[in-house]
Design a protein that fits this description.
Blueprint: H1 3-11, E1 20-25, E2 37-43, H2 47-60, E3 64-67, E4 73-75, E5 80-86, E6 94-97, E7 100-104, H3 109-118, E8 121-122, H4 134-140, E9 143-144, E10 147-148, E11 153-160, E12 165-168, H5 170-173, E13 187-195, E14 197-198, H6 201-218, E15 225-228, H7 238-244, E16 251-252, E17 255-257, E18 264-267, H8 273-291, E19 300-303, E20 306-308
C-alpha cells in the first residue's frame, strides 16, 4: 500500500495510536479463521474517525470494507486490497432507560446479553449465544430458537456513503428472513435501539442457560466455523437435507461438513476459502440432484473487494 496514503491514514488516528496494521491476516478476525491479508486493517475508535477514514478512502479511490466479529463471513485466500475497518470496542456503549436499550453496533451479543441480565430485561435470550456483534445481527436480522432481531428492534442509526447519519425505523429496515435494508444499500450500522420487557434475573439466566445447552449439544462450537452455512429452504431444513444426502463428514481440503450438525461447515485444520467454496458447491449440487432443492448460502463471501454469494 502507498506509504503516502498510509501516512494520511495515521494522521486521522489519535496520537500514539497502535490501531493500524499493515498486511494483517484476516484469518485473525473471522470466526472461520480463514482469510488472506488486508493491505491495511484499522481498529476504529469512534464515529468521527470512521467518517474521516471513509472520506479519505473515497477521495483516494481506495477500497474500504467494514467488519464486526466476522462470524458470518468467508474472506478469500487473496485477502483484501484496501482498508478493512473493524467496528468493535469503539462502538460498544450501552444505554438503558427502563425497558428501552440502545447499544453500539460493535458490542458482542454475548456481552450485551450479560448487561441485559443485570438490568433484568428479557427478550434477548435468543441472541445471547450467537457468536457475532450487534451490527452483524441487525445486518442479517439474526435469529434463533423462535426469536429474531426484527422482534425487538425499534430504531437503527447508520452512516451513509455520503457521510450523513440517518435513523431508520422498523418499516424502513425491511427486515426479512436473514435480510435487511443494509444488504441492499451502502450504509454502516452505528447503533441499534431495542424494546425489551422487564423480567426476573433468575428466569432470564435460566432461559439463556437452556438455549446455550441446546447450542452446545447440537452445534460444533469447538471448531472454527461461520455458523449455519445455508438459509432454511421453504418446507425443509438445510441440515436435514445435507444429512439425508449422506454428506455428514464430507471433506474437501481442510473444510468439512460437521458430523455434529450437517448445516455447519467447520475448519478442520488449515482450511482455505477455496476449500470452503468447493465444499459449498458440492453440497448444493448433491442436494439439488437428490431432492430438487437449491440451498442458498447464508454467509457472505468477501472476494475481489466485493461481497458475493454462491
Amino acid at each position: 500500500m502507498n506509504e503516502q496514503f498510509v501516512s494520511k491514514l495515521k494522521a486521522l488516528l489519535p496520537e500514539g495510536s497502535d490501531s493500524l496494521f499493515l498486511n494483517e491476516p484476516l484469518s485473525r478476525h473471522t470466526t472461520f479463521r480463514i482469510g488472506g491479508p488486508a493491505d491495511c486493517f484499522i481498529e476504529v475508535s469512534g464515529v468521527e474517525e470512521l467518517k474521516n477514514i471513509l472520506d479519505l478512502c473515497q477521495k483516494e479511490d481506495v477500497p474500504c470494507f467494514c467488519i464486526g466479529r466476522g462470524s458470518n463471513l468467508l474472506v478469500s485466500d487473496e485477502g483484501y486490497r484496501g482498508v478493512v475497518l473493524h467496528i468493535g470496542a469503539g462502538f460498544s456503549d450501552v444505554r438503558i432507560e427502563g425497558t428501552r436499550v440502545e447499544a453500539g453496533s460493535g458490542i458482542l451479543l454475548s456481552a450485551l446479553a450479560s448487561r441485559l441480565v443485570q438490568a433484568e430485561l428479557t427478550g434477548f435470550a435468543f441472541a445471547a449465544g450467537i457468536p457475532g456483534s450487534l451490527g452483524g445481527a441487525v445486518y442479517m436480522n439474526a435469529g434463533a430458537y423462535g426469536g429474531e432481531m426484527k422482534d425487538i428492534l425499534t430504531k437503527v442509526t447508520a452512516l451513509k456513503e455520503d457521510g450523513t447519519i440517518v435513523e431508520l425505523f422498523p418499516d424502513e429496515l425491511k427486515l426479512g428472513y436473514r435480510d435487511s435494508v443494509f444488504q441492499h444499500e451502502d450504509m454502516i450500522i452505528l447503533s441499534a435501539e431495542m424494546q425489551l420487557e422487564q423480567g426476573e434475573k433468575d428466569q432470564i439466566l435460566k432461559d439463556m442457560q437452556d438455549l446455550m445447552e441446546r447450542r452446545v449439544s447440537k452445534q460444533p462450537l469447538d471448531m472454527p466455523s461461520a455458523g449455519s452455512v445455508f438459509k432454511r429452504p421453504q418446507g425443509y431444513f438445510a441440515g436435514g437435507l445435507i444429512e439425508q444426502a449422506g454428506l455428514k463428514g464430507c471433506q474437501i481440503g481442510g473444510a468439512r461438513v460437521s458430523e455434529k450438525h450437517a448445516g455447519f461447515i467447520v475448519n478442520a485444520g488449515g482450511a482455505t476459502a477455496e476449500d470452503v467454496v468447493a465444499l459449498i458447491r458440492h453440497i448444493q449440487q448433491t442436494v439439488e440432484t437428490q431432492f430438487g432443492v437449491h440451498l442458498e448460502p447464508e454467509m457472505r463471501i468477501l472476494k475481489d473487494e466485493h461481497l458475493v454469494m454462491l
